[in-house]
Amino acid sequence: MARKPENPIFLERERYRMRRLMDAARLAPVLAAFLFLLPLMWSASEAVKTASVLVYLFAAWGLLTAVTAFLSRKLHKIPRDKWQERP
Amino acid sequence: MGMLNVLVTVSLAYVTFLFMVAFFADRAAARGRSKWLQSPLIYTLSLSIYCTAWTFYGAVGYAARSGVEFLTIYLGPSIVMIGWWLILRKLVRIGRSQRVTSIADLISSRFGKSNSLAVVVTVIAVVGTTPYIALQLQSVTLALDAFAGEEVTPSVGPSATALWLAVGLALFTVLFGTRNLDANERHDGVVMAIAVEAVVKLVALVAVGLFVIWGIGGGIGPTMERISQSEIARWDVSAGRWMGLMFLSSAALLTLPRMFQVMVVENEDERHLATASWAFPAYLLLMSLFVVPIAVLGLEYMPDGANPDLFVLTLPLAEGRNTLAMLSFLGGFSSATSMVIVAAIALSTMVSNHIVMPIWLSTQGSTAMVAGDVRHVVLLSRRLSIMGVLTLGYLYHHTTGGGEALASIGLISFAGVAQTLPALLGGIFWRGATRVGALMGMVVGFVLWAYTLFMPSFGPEVFMSETFLREGPFGWGWLRPEALFGIASSDPVVHSVVWSMSLNTFTFFIFSLISFPTPLERLQGAQFVNVFDHSARPGSWSRGLAEAEDLLVMAQRILGPSEAQSLFRSEAVSQGITGYLPETTPEFLQRLEREMAGSVGAATAHAMVGQILGRASVTVEDLMAVADETAQIMEYSNQLEAKSAELTRTARQLRAANEKLTQMSVQKDAFLSQISHELRTPMTSIRAFSEILRDGGLDDAALAKYAGIIHDEAIRLTRLLDDLLDLSVLENGQVSLNERVGKIGDVLNQAVAAAGIENSRLRVVRSKVREDLMIYTDLDRLSQVFINLISNALKYCDAARPRLEVSIRDLGDTLAIDFIDNGSGIPMASQDVIFEKFSRVGSDQAAGGAGLGLAICREIMHRLGGTVSYLPGQGGGAFRVILPVTVVRSGR
Amino acid sequence: MGKRVLLIEDEPNIIEAISFILSRDGWDVDTHANGIDAVDKVIARQPDLVILDVMLPGRSGFDILRDLRAHDGTAALPVLMLTARGQTKDRETAKALGVSRFMTKPFSNAEVLESVRSLANGVEAPQ
């Protein structure tokens, strides 16, 4: 970290953000699994059509891709040797 | 007929184009201009080999049969990619830090570099992938048939098409997959070609999709309406299949050999994964977006009985869109070929490293390590393995004759390779996982898979009889392949996956718990699980046992001479030692082993180093180092680690400096007495004979003889004084260099002429490569160095037919001129002192000279900004002169 | 009468010079050019006097001298040592080992001749 030592609060905050970002990255697949399994709950209902499930799944898929892109780009900016930091 | 001809022409042109792409990408990489080749985009596109012809043609067929269910195959991998931070990042880091060559290598390396484990994984991979390769061959054949349609079927039958395709793919894979002599280099050409194919298949599928929605369907709204009217309008999916297939495809992304190849082995930079984490799901999304519309409109427009697996092709064809159909064909062709190429590379690496090479090594006996150039054997074995893999795929296609729905073969294959998942994940997340557990788990899983899914999939009477399938072996109903323990499932795939994966995992856990790992397993386990705490890298070899020179000789055979030398050199430099032979610290041995693992696999590399060290396992002390919790805590602190490394280095340097000082004081005394001896000896002869002459009374012959002796000794004395003066001037830096431009070959010519070898038996062999390089330096001084080295060979080379090889190498920022003779070389103990003044190896005073030659050479090279050093491990006396490249100009 | 001198020295020109000087004076000169089997040679030839160089290929003159003094047949044999190193330390070493006379190269021919004569005639006893 090339930050000046006279601003330690900022550095702490930075590191805190980094950690939470990693947490989010860990939770992303759980969210994905949840969203992709959700349609199973609708099976019972007669009214549900393939077309609407398709729209839902592609929308969820697109959303997850966007979230992952956001997280990855943030994590990408962290120096790689900090990647190994544990929570 | 015309249509088919055009298609064949276009395909051939496309193949030629791919060859060129691969060729130029390889060339660009070889010239170091590969920055854009190694972009995250290329990495993401290379991952798209997940989408094979099974996706390109099969997804639509799947959707036409089972509706939305086809999506699970793409949602599963998306979850894994979105969760890259958890698993993939660790896999890639381990792959890179351990120089893993395949999934078999990774699992074998984790569990104590066990080759039996690697063999099991390799067998699973080959059995699981062969049907998949056959599937690709079949899809291209079917697509071609669809084009031929009712036209006269040409004399080239479908099987012949598959044969020619297999031959072409083998050629491409051998050419670009095993091109580099350095077997562990990444395949830039192949990766570039499959990236191009990835774009082609995406564009093709999207183009067909757009055409179907707007060209036939009448826009988005009406198309959605048609979907709701179609046979697959109802959301009716089995929860078991939905979850099971999503799990299966997630597992496949991690365990398919070809995916492991592009994702881990070919990975250039860990950060590419960050981009692929969202870009690859996006790619999959685009590939799946139009599948349902195409399926629905295909069902509506195509005649009953038309193969839904080919709608992507036949729909545009039926609408008369021949260009679009051709594009679609190329998309399918791309999907099929890229999968086969990468799968062949991945499988051949495994087969070669874990089956062929160990067998070859054992036939060579224990001296094999240093017997020849292993690299050629490795390459040959990989090439043969590639051909073997493709032959298997072709034979499978030929014997089964195709016909099955594409999707089912794909799923069977997925379920097969997924059997390595528990060992893989257990290995990288659980330190308690053991080799026995992994082995038992995989064997149980593989057997169950073969019994419940793979063998029944061939239908009755191939592997299992009708009664066997219906009533079980010996009429034992609870062992019916498709209803184990009497639990009949409507779906054989889910049935098989549930049983094989759960019993696999269960066995893996139980045997891991009750077995005890070997020390090496525990070491590797710690390294894999704690890969991100890079300090936790306990040594696995005790120091001091290995002869550095033997290791260098072996490493040269496997890595190639210049790579091995620069590895040894850099290690020596980091240890603060000059020369090519570092101390054989555990860290260095581990590094060496990893480098070699990149060429021959971890198990083989370990065995080879073990052979040189004279032992093949880890000692109790090493184990203690791992088990010792205190050591663990210390290892976690990077700072401490860095400091202790620093201390070790400083201590080593101090020790060396101290030794040097002691040596210098001894040397100073020795130097004075040497000088005295060297000056007094000729003096003695001169004085004695001049007194004899003075006494008189000699005949003419004696007179002439004795005068001659006085003359010779006076010259010897003068030469010695000249040398001493020269050395003193050089050492004090008072020398003025006469720098000019000249051809290096001319300097060598001059040196060979002046070294006085014309009446001797010494033969100087020069490789003329690079001899026309122009250099800018003091040519006379350089020539003096060359003369010295040549006359050294003349004096000391003790071979029956003495021979000196002079070759020039380009080391990047320096130029090396090697002088290697075929004598017995200089013993290890003397290699350090030969450049000291008055040092003569052995007692051979008769060789003449005062032992100042090499000392002068060293000083001259120092002045010229280069070095001269002894090159160990070349099988004879070998000296290397290094000139800095700043004084080298490449001329016309 | 031809008393026998064994010259152990490796420089061909010095061998030539000493042989010439001594032969001219009537000595029977035998030469040997390396250190390894010098002691065996002395024992086999039983010369009246040995001229020994210090820096010999294979084995140093000091070691040879030590062996000669330790062997019954040669313990009292007159040994004239020649060295080109000329350090006082070497002279002391040679004395301690029981050399009969020690000379530094380059030497005067007359001096060598005189030393050989007096040693061989027992004028100067071994120390």
From TrEMBL, chain A:
Keywords for the protein's UniProt record, in alphabetical order: Membrane, Transmembrane, Transmembrane helix
Stretches that traverse the bilayer: 53-72
Full protein name: Putative membrane protein
From TrEMBL, chain B:
Any coiled-coil regions, as ranges: 626-664
Keyword Kinase: yes
Pfam families named among the record's database cross-references: HATPase_c, HisKA
UniProt catalytic activity: ATP + protein L-histidine = ADP + protein N-phospho-L-histidine
Domain Histidine kinase: 674-887
Gene Ontology terms, MF aspect: phosphorelay sensor kinase activity; transmembrane transporter activity
Membrane topology type: Multi-pass membrane protein
Transferase keyword on record: yes
Subcellular compartments: Membrane
InterPro entries recorded: HATPase_C_sf (IPR036890), HATPase_dom (IPR003594), His_kinase_dom (IPR005467), HisK_dim/P_dom (IPR003661), HisK_dim/P_sf (IPR036097), Na/Glc_symporter_sf (IPR038377), Na/solute_symporter (IPR001734), Sensor_HK_Regulatory (IPR050736)
Keywords (A to Z) from UniProt: Coiled coil, Kinase, Membrane, Phosphoprotein, Transferase, Transmembrane, Transmembrane helix, Two-component regulatory system
One Gene Ontology cellular component: membrane
Chain ranges passing through the membrane: 6-29, 41-64, 70-88, 117-135, 155-178, 190-216, 242-260, 280-303, 323-356, 377-396, 408-429, 436-454
Domain of life the protein comes from: Bacteria
SUPFAM superfamilies named in the record: ATPase domain of HSP90 chaperone/DNA topoisomerase II/histidine kinase, Homodimeric domain of signal transducing histidine kinase
EC number of the protein: 2.7.13.3
Cited SMART domains: HATPase_c, HisKA
Assigned protein family: Belongs to the sodium:solute symporter (SSF) (TC 2.A.21) family.
Name recorded for this polypeptide: histidine kinase
Species annotation: Donghicola eburneus
Automatic annotation (TrEMBL), chain C:
Keywords: DNA-binding, Phosphoprotein, Transcription, Transcription regulation, Two-component regulatory system
PROSITE patterns cross-referenced by the UniProt entry: RESPONSE_REGULATORY (PS50110)
Domain Response regulatory: 4-120
Coiled coil regions, renumbered to chain: none
CDD domains noted in UniProt: REC_OmpR
GO biological process, one term: phosphorelay signal transduction system
Pfam families per UniProt: Response_reg
InterPro entries reported in the protein's UniProt record: Bact_response_regulator, CheY-like_superfamily, Sig_transdc_resp-reg_receiver
GO molecular function, one term: DNA binding
Modified-residue entries (4-aspartylphosphate), positions: 53
Family annotation (SUPFAM superfamilies): CheY-like
Protein's name according to its UniProt entry: Response regulator receiver protein
Annotated organism of origin: Donghicola eburneus
